[in-house]
Each structure stands twice: as structure tokens, then as C-alpha cells.
Inverse folding.
């Protein structure tokens, strides 16, 4: 049972106590990154495999698929609540670790349940069409994805706070870089592993005609179900194991939280109301929040449609389209791993983010061209470029976020920026599917429908650059700290 755990720590002893604690080394950083690697694997399962199966093999409308999957991101406001809870209450004896473990158990279970409901939804949609029964399965699937999203929030938000707790100002950016890179490693591993565990021939068909539900082909459906069920049983179990391995003993040995938390009534310091006040108090805060929103939407609109693009335009099978994640994931990993050393020191964080956004827009042009030429090699190359550009953009944006986060309210900002990105990813998932459906209604050629999605991504990146040119880091830091101080002082009066 959760219990309060606060004891005042005199500020005069804080520096001495901090110096007595061990510092995390590079191996510990990579160990912490195993949790993020697991999240990368899970993202491939939900946004790479499951959405492709629903759209291509089960012939469920893309808007419905994207909207249902996006429910797990629409519960993002819970991130602030879970962050506050992990600040204020111990769970399983720890402030962060208990939440991470229980959340990992729940999202692993929820992902397997989502697949089972997906089969029932596809069968109902194929046999009886739009009926109360079908809508019931849709509602149940949306509910499971809501549970999945809550479990992710309850696990990933305390984990992000743990990264702050176990690091110091001089090594925090290095820790973030290592952990974020491990997320990309997880995406690559998830893509390769999924492609190996999925049937190579069962669903490899040319897609020159209209999409037909696999429920009309019982033998292929049975083979696919067995493979997908096995995949969604093995990989989530592995991800849960990685969560335990990543965090076991870390908080007890390295956490500085107890020493840093000398503010009285800290449980009341991080609330949704105050977070919104901090976010809305400064023009610079609003500009950066809007940049994050537009940039994230434009970066992830392709996520729900790229695998169907490979299936419907290039005639790829499930294992081949899943492997597409490996191309952009590898590019992203290289981009993240090199940008901090090669680009940021030369042109600065803000210009790095702008360069990344511009390159993402360019890569979308090549993705469109690959569809018109039906050139799989060009598509693969375009996805590597997209990954590199995503890595550059992500590194620049994360670096700016670190600059735009006051240490005394790190939890508030982590929750707020996380909320912005989660809402944006939800909007990106829904809009990607919706724009694809609209494109299919407008254009006779499927390649044009998909090009509409990728073209809007490119335009969105140009708009993100426009917002970023108006962000002033120094002004942000000054006004944000003033706002935080005044808000907290007024609440204490």
C-alpha cells in the first residue's frame, strides 16, 4: 500500500549528502536504457504490426484503426498525475521503481488482450458488417488501448523522473542521449525480431486489386493468427523482463530524490492546475509548446500508414513491411548518436532542430517518389534518410527541452512536455489514418492517397521551423523561472 514518505533535509547538508552518493557510470546508463529499448519494441508491435494487420489483412478502415490505437495516447494527461503520485507516494517501497514494474506488467498484458479482441473485431466486421456487435468490439478494443496507455504512463513517467533523480546536471544530458538511443535500438530489434517470427509467405501477395479481408482465406488467417499471438506473447514478456533488469536496485543506490526534496508539502507542488499555469504564463512557453506539437505531429503522421503503404503500393508481405521499421530506426539511431558530437557543437541546438525538420521534409519527397516508381530500394533509402533526419530533429528538440526546464520543477516540465508529445502523437496517428481515407476517396490511385499524407508531413515540418525561429531560449528561461516562483509563492500565501 502506498504511504507518504517525506522528511525535511536541511539545505546546508544537501551538497555534502549529494557528494557522498555514487554517480552512475556509462554501463549503468546503458542498463537504464534497457527499459526504453523495451518501449521501442512495444511501439513496433502496436504501431508497426497490429495496425498493418488491421488495415491490410483484416480490411478495417484506416481511420477506425488509427483512432482506436490513438486512444492509448489520448489518456496522456494521466502522465502528470502519475508523476505527482511517484513524487508524493512510495509504491512497493520506492518512489519510482514500483510504478515502473507494475505499469510494465499491465501494458504487457493489455497488448496481448488487444490482439485477441482485434481478431474478434475483424471477424465481426467481415461477417455482419456495421452492427451493434461490431461497435461493441470496437469499444472494447478502445478500452483496452486506454488501459495500455494508462499502463505506459504509469511506467514511463516515473522512469523519466528516475532519470532526473539518479543524475546530476553535468551528466544528465549524456544519460538522456544514451537512453534515447536505446529506444531506437529497441525499434530496430523489434522490427527484425517481428519479421523473423511472422510468416514470410502466408500473406505475401501482390496488391494490385482492392484489399480483401483475410477472413475470406481461412488457412492463411489461421497461420497469421498463430504467428501474431506468439509474437505478442513472447515480446511483451521479454519487455517486462527488461524493465526489471533495467531498474532493479538503481533507485536504492543512486537516487538523489530524498536529498533534493526539501520543499514542504511537495505532494501539492506538482498538480495539473499549476502545470497549466506554468505553460500558459509565457509567450515563449506557448511558442515552444506549439513547436513541439506541430513537429511531433509532422514526424509521426507516417507511423500508422507506412506499413500499409508497403503492402498496398509495393506488394510487400507483413514480414517485409515490418522490416521497414529497421531502416528508419537504424537511421534514427545513427542520427541521435552522432548529432550531439558533430552538429550541435558546430551550429547550436536550435539550428540543429531546424536542420532536422528541413531534412525530414526532404525525405518525405523521396518517400513519395519511391511510390510513383515502385522502387523498394528508393523507399528503403528514403526511410534511412528520414531516420537520420528524425535523429537530428529529436536531438535538437531534446537539448532545447533540457535548456527550457527549470531544475526545481523538473517533474512539472517532464509531465508537460510529455503531455504535449503524447497528444501530438495521438493526433498524428488519427490524422494519418483519416487523411489516407480521404485520399482514397479523392484519388483513384492508392499512391496518390498515401502521397497526400506524406506531403502534409513535409508542409508541417516547414511550419514547425517557422515556430522555432520565434523561440528565444534565454527569454524562456528567465520568464519561466519567474513564473514558477510567483505561482508557488502565491499558492503558499
Amino acid at each position: 500500500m502506498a504511504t507518504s514518505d517525506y522528511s525535511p533535509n536541511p539545505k546546508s547538508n544537501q551538497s555534502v549528502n549529494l557528494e557522498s552518493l555514487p554517480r552512475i557510470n556509462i554501463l549503468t546508463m546503458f542498463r537504464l536504457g534497457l527499459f526504453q529499448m523495451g518501449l521501442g519494441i512495444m511501439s513496433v508491435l502496436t504501431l508497426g504490426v497490429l495496425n498493418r494487420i488491421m488495415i491490410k489483412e483484416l480490411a478495417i478502415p484506416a481511420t477506425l484503426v488509427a483512432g482506436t490505437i490513438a486512444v492509448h495516447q489520448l489518456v496522456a494527461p494521466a502522465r502528470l498525475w502519475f508523476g505527482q503520485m511517484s513524487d508524493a507516494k512510495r509504491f512497493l517501497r520506492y518512489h519510482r521503481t514500483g510504478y515502473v514494474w507494475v505499469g510494465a506488467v499491465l501494458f504487457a498484458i493489455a497488448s496481448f488482450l488487444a490482439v485477441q479482441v482485434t481478431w474478434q473485431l475483424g471477424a465481426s466486421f467481415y461477417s455482419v458488417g456495421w452492427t451493434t456487435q461490431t461497435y461493441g468490439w470496437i469499444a472494447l478494443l478502445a478500452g483496452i488501448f486506454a488501459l495500455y496507455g494508462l499502463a505506459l504512463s504509469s511506467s514511463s513517467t516515473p522512469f523519466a523522473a528516475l532519470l532526473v533523480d539518479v543524475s546530476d546536471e553535468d551528466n544528465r544530458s549524456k544519460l538522456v542521449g544514451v537512453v534515447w538511443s536505446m529506444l531506437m535500438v529497441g525499434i530496430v530489434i523489434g522490427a527484425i525480431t517481428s519479421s523473423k517470427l511472422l510468416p514470410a509467405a502466408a500473406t505475401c501477395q501482390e496488391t494490385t486489386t482492392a484489399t480483401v479481408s483475410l477472413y475470406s482465406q481461412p488457412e492463411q488467417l489461421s497461420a497469421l493468427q498463430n504467428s501474431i499471438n506468439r509474437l505478442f506473447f513472447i515480446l511483451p514478456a521479454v519487455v517486462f523482463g527488461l524493465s526489471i533488469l533495467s531498474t532493479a536496485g538503481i533507485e536504492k543506490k543512486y537516487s538523489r530524490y530524498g536529498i533534493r526534496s526539501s520543499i514542504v508539502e511537495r505532494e501539492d507542488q506538482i498538480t495539473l492546475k499549476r502545470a497549466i499555469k506554468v505553460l500558459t504564463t509565457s509567450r515563449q512557453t506557448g511558442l515552444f509548446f506549439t513547436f513541439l506539437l506541430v513537429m511531433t505531429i509532422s514526424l509521426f503522421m507516417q507511423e500508422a500508414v507506412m506499413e500499409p503503404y508497403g503492402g498496398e503500393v509495393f506488394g510487400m508481405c507483413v514480414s517485409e513491411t515490418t522490416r521497414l521499421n529497421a531502416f528508419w530506426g537504424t537511421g534514427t539511431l545513427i542520427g541521435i548518436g552522432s548529432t550531439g558530437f558533430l552538429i550541435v557543437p558546430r551550429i547550436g541546438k536550435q539550428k540543429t532542430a531546424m536542420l532536422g525538420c528541413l531534412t525530414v521534409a526532404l525525405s518525405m519527397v523521396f518517400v513519395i517518389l519511391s511510390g510513383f516508381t515502385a522502387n523498394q530500394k528508393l523507399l528503403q533509402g528514403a526511410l534511412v534518410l528520414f531516420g537520420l533526419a528524425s535523429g537530428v530533429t529529436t536531438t535538437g528538440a531534446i537539448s532545447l527541452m533540457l535548456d527550457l526546464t527549470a531544475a526545481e520543477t523538473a517533474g512539472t516540465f517532464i509531465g508537460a512536455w510529455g503531455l504535449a508529445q503524447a497528444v501530438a502523437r495521438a493526433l498524428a496517428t488519427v490524422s494519418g489514418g483519416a487523411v489516407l481515407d480521404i485520399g482514397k476517396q479523392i484519388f483513384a490511385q492508392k499512391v496518390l492517397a498515401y502521397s497526400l499524407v506524406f506531403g502534409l508531413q513535409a508542409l508541417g515540418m516547414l511550419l514547425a521551423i517557422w515556430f522555432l525561429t520565434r523561440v528565444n531560449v534565454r527569454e524562456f528561461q528567465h520568464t519561466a523561472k519567474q513564473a514558477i516562483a510567483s505561482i508557488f509563492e502565491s499558492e503558499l500565501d
Q: What stands out?
A: Confidence is low (pLDDT under 50) at residues 1-16, 205-211, 262-268. The two ends are 33 Å apart (CA to CA).
